[in-house]
Amino acid sequence: MEEQIQETVEAKKPNLPDGLAETMKKQGYHFVGRHSATKICGYTASSLKGGESCYKHQFYGITSHRCIQATPAIGCNLACSFCWRIIPEEEGYKWNELNALSRWDDPKEIVDGLIEEHKKIVSGYKGNEKVTLERWQESNNPAHVALSLTGEPLFYPKMNALLEEFHSRGISTFLVTNGTMVNALKNLKTMPTQLYVSIQAPNKEIYGKTVRPKNLAATWDNFNEFLKIFSGLPTRRVFRLTLVKGLNMSDPEGYAELIKTGKPHYVEVKGFVFVGGARSPERGLEFQQMPRKQEILDFAKQIAAGCGYMLADYHESSNVALLCVDEEAARNKLLHFAK
Prior knowledge:
This protein is an alpha/beta fold. The protein is 37% helix and 15% strand. It contains 13 helices and 10 strands. It has helices at residues 2-12, 18-26, 42-48, 55-60, 107-123, 133-139, 159-168, 182-186, 204-211, 216-230, 252-262, 293-307, 327-331; strands spanning 30-32, 36-38, 67-71, 144-147, 172-177, 194-199, 236-243, 266-271, 310-315, 320-324. It is globular.
């Protein structure tokens, strides 16, 4: 009996060093099982209080206060300099994020746990004078999940079943990958509602400086193979560019060529924000490297000119421009979600 209790306790612990787990908890992370987590998005909180919604609301029509920000895999194989998340080595941890688990959590358990933790998070907003009862009740019935919180979601080997579990509950899925997990992409049979790939650089040299992979040659090759497979997937495909002045905000023609390879329906051209882990001295970034609105719009237009896409929208507070492959995509960018 004692061994069974211990096994149950261990199964519920996140698979990362205790000190790192405590730091992440202080930052608002709620862990689910051994390798999943959720954390409230600022736009979810804002929308709950009747304020501004996420750019995904403006661009694609999601309801921000009904969105769960989550990941089924905390670990990542890259160390992107602009990332606001924690990079364990920078905190003094030698934890190998890529260690395969002896047992991966069941998709149903993950979805149940994420919804439960999401409800715990939003429970504290019920008494807020800016939150209506109707909006709070809606937030307890999530309609969307953004699998983008931290780590690389495609590390999770049961992604098909996880997506099916979300979809069976009427929850749309926005899956964000860093574009290196080629085999996982080949095995993806159930498509997310919208599939994102992060495009961190326009060429191999800048890619190495930006994402800081352990093996540049292999990772860059995987990335390019990933884009070729991505181009033919039967779902809404999106490129996400996070641009840092003096680092990867150059060579718009290079980005245009990647777009021609990956053939996304939409391209989000977003300005880097100097927050969180991005402020770590080890990254070498500065406040002045954040692009301004006009700089993002001008760069987006340069990319569009190189690949034949069109500038269709811009979200002010996120400093992100949206390119669409054609006028039909621009007209149909709003997804029709069930109320």
